[in-house]
Design brief:
There is one protein chain. By secondary structure, the protein is an alpha+beta fold. Helix content is 23%, strand content 23%. It is built from 9 helices and 18 strands. It has helices spanning 23-32, 81-90, 106-112, 186-197, 296-310, 348-362, 379-385, 389-399, 408-414; strands spanning 36-38, 53-55, 64-67, 72-76, 93-94, 128-134, 140-144, 162-169, 171-172, 175-184, 202-207, 214-222, 239-240, 264-265, 284-292, 314-322, 337-345, 368-369. Strands 10, 11, 12, 13, 14, 15, 16, 17 and 18 form a 9-stranded antiparallel beta sheet that branches. The chain has a 5-stranded antiparallel beta sheet with strand order 3-4-8-6-7. A two-stranded parallel sheet has the order 1-2. Strand 6 (128-134) and strand 7 form a beta hairpin. Helix 5 runs antiparallel to helix 6 (348-362). It starts with 22 loop residues before the first helix and ends with a helix.
């Protein structure tokens, strides 16, 4: 039986992943393996998780250990965010942000720099204060922010070892509301982008790059003193939606999190989709570039110019903001970014055909591709975008001298 990724556009070389049920079993597996890649929730669209052998840590014993004094929670690396956020909330705590899907695993999300949105919100990886992982020789290691190379170990593309536990920063729980607005003209977006993205704790704008501009803006506001709250008035230039909406044209709003300005728990507002539904599984492909904030208007111009070449293969695009961080391979390393995300129809040849043109347009503007999504670029281009690339290469060479955790994709990307 062939094992595939979430979208079904990639058949893995390994027929099925190893699924150890204990850390000692995982250590023995890693120590004897010559080529092994960790597999999370399969929500990657390229070959980052492919390998002769794969391992999933989803069957390791689940944990949720809250340290109230340190304001941290330690969870199993293979847990999906949606598996524990309600329990965390019930204990009086919250994460700073979530991705649009609660279905993704903690290890996979942080290892690829996956993010939510918000001018002051870093990616999910910025919440990581410690990691436990099995290194290439089978040794179980724990690293924390006090370790000088920790910033190179979080967004690691699965190259330092197999994560087993992750410790995340938490904060007191909070309520949120989600308000959706429609029809923001391009003139409003260009003239008031900063005002739009700062109008709520987390903002997502959806577009198909046509003359109508942004078709939907999703504003997720905290109901406490952190970040602005949206009043009952309109977002300047937009019209408040009078019904729940799905970000994909024609999609069922029943799968999305609560809208309409109703206050509710953070975990049911920060994602776009509910855990009990699996949206677009097998029906879509994804690409994303993280562009430095100061270059975003040029980037919008560049993508709009390309749109006639690709719009027939596009479901929708999403614009989100991400705060700067110091993680070596984070797409938002050293600079606040705007993520320009493309949700494609699963037209694989046609989508792959547009990828080089997207890279040509966005790379000169500092655009860094999301590590878990489809992109076509040159290793020299990637290296030039990451000032700590040489440090990361040295780190993985030291931790994994035999290349156990390498595969063709990451080796080509990083020039190893």
């Amino acid at each position: 039986m062939t094992s595939t990724n979430w979208a079904g556009n990639l058949a893995f070389a390994a027929a099925a992943p190893h699924e150890p049920t204990s850390i000692p079993e995982l250590q023995r597996l890693v120590a004897r393996s010559r080529s092994l890649r960790a597999l999370g929730s399969r929500h990657s669209f390229n070959a980052i998780a492919d390998g002769a052998e794969q391992v999933s840590v989803a069957r390791l014993a689940r944990e949720l250990v809250i340290d109230a004094e340190a304001s941290t929670v330690t969870v199993s690396a293979g847990a999906r965010y949606g598996d524990f956020v309600e329990q965390l909330d019930a204990a009086g705590w919250a994460l700073h942000n979530l991705a649009s899907l609660p279905h993704i695993s903690v290890a996979g999300a942080i290892s690829t720099g996956t993010h939510g949105s918000g001018d002051v919100n870093g990616s999910l990886a910025t919440a990581v204060s410690a990691i436990e992982f099995v290194a290439a020789d089978g040794t179980l290691l724990t690293m924390s922010r006090s370790d000088p190379e920790f910033a190179g170990m979080v967004v690691s593309l699965g190259m330092i070892g197999v994560l087993t536990r992750v410790t995340l920063d938490i904060q007191p729980t909070f309520l949120m509301r989600q308000d959706v607005f429609e029809r923001l003209p391009w003139s409003v977006v260009y003239d008031g982008l900063d005002a739009i993205t700062s109008s709520a704790y987390s903002v997502s704008q959806f577009t198909r790059w046509g003359p109508e501009g942004v078709t939907q803006a999703w504003l997720k506001s905290r109901m406490d003193a952190v970040g602005p709250a949206v009043s009952s008035g309109a977002l300047p230039g937009g019209t408040r939606a009078d019904r729940p909406l799905h970000p994909l044209p024609g999609g069922p709003a029943s799968t999305t999190t609560e809208q309409g300005g109703l206050a509710g728990p953070w975990w049911n507002r920060l994602p776009h989709f509910r855990l009990e539904f699996t949206p677009s599984n097998g029906e879509e492909l994804q690409t994303e570039y993280l562009v430095p904030r100061e270059n975003v208007l040029e980037a919008l111009d560049a993508v709009r110019a390309l749109a006639p070449r690709f719009v027939e293969h596009l479901f929708v695009s999403e614009l989100r903001t991400v705060a700067a961080d110091d993680l070596w391979l984070s797409p938002s390393h050293g600079t606040g970014c705007v993520g320009i995300h493309f949700t494609w129809l699963r037209n694989v040849p046609e989508v792959r055909g547009i990828l080089p043109a997207l890279d040509d347009a966005l790379n000169p503007l500092g655009g860094r591709p999301h590590w878990g999504k489809l992109f076509e670029t040159d290793p020299a281009r990637l290296a030039a975008l990451y000032p700590r690339m040489d440090d990361f290469r040295a780190l993985v060479t030291r931790l994994d001298p035999s290349g156990t955790f390498r595969n063709r994709a990451v080796t080509e990307w990083l020039g190893l």
